[in-house]
Batch of 2 targets.
Target 1
Amino acid sequence: MIEDTGIVVAFWVLALTTVGCAAMVAAVRELIQAVLFLALSFIGVAGIYIVLSADFVAVVQVLIYAGAIAVLMTFAVMLTPAADRKNSETTFAGPALVLAGLVLSVIVFVAYDTSWNISGRAAFPSTAASLGEAFLKPYVVPFEVASVLLLVAMVGAIVLTKEESADA
Amino acid sequence: MPDLPLLASVKLEQVLVLGGFLFAIGLYLSLAKRNAIGILMGVELMLNAVNVTLIGFSRFVVSPRPLDGQVFAVFVITVAAAEAAVALALAVAVYKHRDTINIDEIDLLRW
Amino acid sequence: MLLTIVTEHWWDIRDLSNLSAKIAELIDAAGGPHWLIFVVTGLLGAGGIIAFIGACAVINIWVERRVVGRMQSRLGPNRLGPFGLLQPVADAIKLMQKEVLQPKTASGLIFTAAPIAFTIPGIWLMAVLPWGRNMVLADLDVGVLFLLAASSLGALAVFMAGYSSNNKYSLFGSMRAIAALVSYEIPIVVALLGVVLFTGTMRLSGIVLFQEHYWVPLLLLQPLPFLIYFISISAELNRTPADVSEAESEIVGGFHTEYSGMKFGLFYAAELINAVVVSAIIATVFLGGWWMYKVDEVVPGWMIFIGKIYAVYFLFVWTRGTLPRFRIDQLLAFAWKWMTPMAIVNVMLVAAEVLLWEETGWSAGLLLPAYVVINNALAVGLIVAFVRVFAPKFQRFPTGLRMYSNIDVPALPAVHPADAAPVGTPAS
């Protein structure tokens, strides 16, 4: 449980910003504005990570999510010029809203009802070095598999969007 | 320890509720949006929500290796990046054939 | 009361962190809350940095135009004030009194927010740079990674500007700019990875302390990352020779075609601010920041730092004044075929060197000069090897006359019977 005033204020401001931007993603009428609000909510989530003393993961989040995935989405919007750019909903919008509300209430109930095994430890001093060790000692196999996965994704994306060459 | 009012401290429950909000909004987006990119935005929000809860657990809960939550979160970010790349490549490839990425109109396997 | 503190300790301007220590004492003595210290010192530091950046943006307008002018054998601005020193004032007034035109079909909010989103990451980067031994606004443990993350946010601002203008030239410009930005992020990351491997820390103050401890600027130990970083960051900054996104002769204005008045002024200022910030990063990581071989015990560290910033900025202006512009496909090929492989080879070599250093435990005085020689030789060797393999053959003298009648021109498709005769038919 964190009690420092500054950190608590920061957490609430960032939490409200993030949830607000995520709600705007659903509510705005233009696709490009939705993508930009999504990028803002990614940065808000990075702020939450810093509050929870995960500084390395926060910077990785900004670098990859806001800096690469958001740019990927804008590229996809630019490469589909004749597609519909209005951020409209399907006919399932009503039931989806009900379902989302139900899921949210279940999560809130479970969060407040379970007795979590809280430890009173202080914030992590600095996580970059210990994360690096964790990647190379206990978790080295998932680390290597993740690199193969990224290679496969790269090759797959290139193959999917390759144009048929005229002299094939 | 004394029970501080809701706004005066950050506890695990509040982090989980934040994650829950993000997950619910992401779920709504991926079920209700008509554009394929809108659906992908919902999926990315859901993955972010999961990461927030993972990091919250790593910060607050008793554990022999407390940094495991952050390691898991980095792996989720990596896999999300790979999946976003492939999903957007798929959307662009479908666009080349059907001239639309509106999922209401891409509902037949072949015509 | 703050004023008396400043006037009492004016001689101590060498280390401005004393001021923040004094403020902390004051607040504690007055019984204020603990977080107020962070707020006050943070605001002071941020105010100082923003004042410096604002001053630089104004001065650099003059520096750039005057120095580029002198390099091109012309005078540069010399009418307003002595040596044209009031030129930035005139530029600012001109931009402020221009009408801010906004096309009706442009999305209002994104159009206005794009210049702001372009400026902000640049100013963020200054927060992690050390100005003196204890003078860092935010001594992040992942400082180098923060630099990379904040510079990758610029791509989104470029897209916002280009897309919201609803203008095909802007869209072309922003697509070219984002392609270049994204391609050049990889050499930047891998080049700085070599530096971080060597110093063993991602904290920027730690990198400067490494250079101070071993008495060698990282420029000598890692020449290849310096070159790769310098060239790649010129592309990221959209500076000539890599300013394909705003090539005035090619695509009108690129992503800032539709901007006028102070919004364009903000783009212009943001480019200058980014150039200053990047010069500061190079000065910190490769040249040693506030440290200079015992001089920093006499001259305040931040003055040395500002001197180094302007030295690196002069290098940027020098390349701008000298080199012609790349084509976009040349630019992207350069990133993927030249910069990335060189950076990866450098990382492998640096890893081997660091492993040798750690495993054998030989003293640094023995190993580091050897590493300087090896790294410089590798840099020269790699560049020569790449030029031999990848560069197209340079034809110094034409090998013969090219006769017009020997040119083989394919026949044009006949749309109209009168067009059926192609132009350059070889004389039969």
Target 2
Amino acid sequence: MNEAAIEMDHVFKTYPSRISALSDVTLEIFPGEFTFIAGPSGSGKSTLLRILFCAEKPTSGEVVVHGMHVTQTGFRKIHQLRRTMGIVSQDFKLLEDRTVNENVAFVLEVTGHPRKDAKEKASEILRRVGLEERGEDSILALSAGEQQRVAIARAVVNSPPLLLADEPTGNLDAKMTVEVMRIFADLHQKGMTILFATQYTGLIKYFSYRVVQISNGRILDGKKVDTSKIGEAKAGE
Amino acid sequence: MMFFLRYVMRRTFQSMRGNLFPNLITVGIIAVSMLIFSTFTLLAFNLTNFLKIWEDKIEVVAYLKRGTPSSEVEPLLKKTRLLEGVELVRYVSPYDAMAFMETKLGRQKSLLEGIQPGVLPPSFEIQLKKEFRNSTKIGEVVAHLKKIPQFEEIQYGQEWVETFSVLVQILRLTQWILGGLLLIAVIFITSNTLQLTVSSRREEIEVMHWVGASPSFIRVPFYVEGLIQGLLGGGLAILFLLLLHQGLFLYIPPSVQVWLAKIPVLFLPPETIVWILLGGMVLGFFGSFVASMRVLKYK
């Protein structure tokens, strides 16, 4: 059996205000899995993802990502962990004073790649998300769906094995959601492990991916789908 | 390595260009602070130099008691020459003293008419060895001279030397106290400006955190920004000080200029200038370091 890409073992997260965000979460995600983390707003989806990319520390429990113990990862090692994952958020977090290509190339530049190589690689990844013609455009000239595609391109440009997406379709209409979901499905088919947090259960039903239900910080159901079906999902239209 | 340096310089100049106004304010404040510090350094340097020149010319005059028989002068000269620290001794008779005064008074020498040379006491002008020409060592020589009964009075301008030494010490103390206060102020101001810069680039830094940019990729450009601000501030301070130094003679009365011409008013030596520039850079660096500790934590 493959070693899990993500292991969460009896993880609790309680904020100083005594609000419990996660309660006894135990979860295993295997390489190549596409997993929906589904639950209503405030259920703990974002906290779970934030713990995985070390933006928050759990109150107790063990979290291992790609063999690295997140709870024991010091300040000087966090960036090494983050390089193994791409992060996509609902609000895109794109740099408005830069072009589309510059936004994507920025990731490579700040992780030690020469500028010229970064630009070429950015163009290549923009082609994969269907934005090859928009490379020199300003971010502000793009639609919300296009902006989210740029954010996905930025998240995967350095080929991380894991993609964490926090409500990536939250700000998109149905048509744009389909466009974006196609990209996620494509990335998954190419072997990327994807953790996709969403509150829109309507979206999940179109896919045969694993669904982890979360409510009030507790995992209700984390059944694992038949791995032979991974990649067979079709985006609903 | 070259790639990293190119990256750092590009990011630093992008940041400085993008935050021109806060950067100019910081450079200005560093320049003013360094100018105040440098002015005190220059004053202390010149006063110390003046003290050294004066000490080089220092001479002890030992006045002989009136009525000292001339037969005693020669043995007394020999005795004085043998004292530790004494380099040269010259006997000044009352006639020599009168001639000296006439020369000094020039056209006003008529003032001395009717005054007999006998009124003036004979004296020994004692030149000291170089290592004895300071306020501590000179005291030792004078103590020996005072033990010789034929001398009535010893003059060497001790009070003046001591007062001047104290003045230089006060100036140096003020320089360092002021320097310390300015140091704290500059670090505070630089770190706050850097915080403004960081906050204007908040989104970019957040993305850098997300994508796994190493702490050095995030922080070093801000450190370099602080170093450049410090260097520019220090450089401007030196430039202003040079202009002040050069302009000094343009705006002072000619009578004072004549007096000043005898005392060289020097500018700071090159090594002090280098230290001031390095000091500015260290200040700028600490400011950005403090800011980075506060606002560039990995999130």
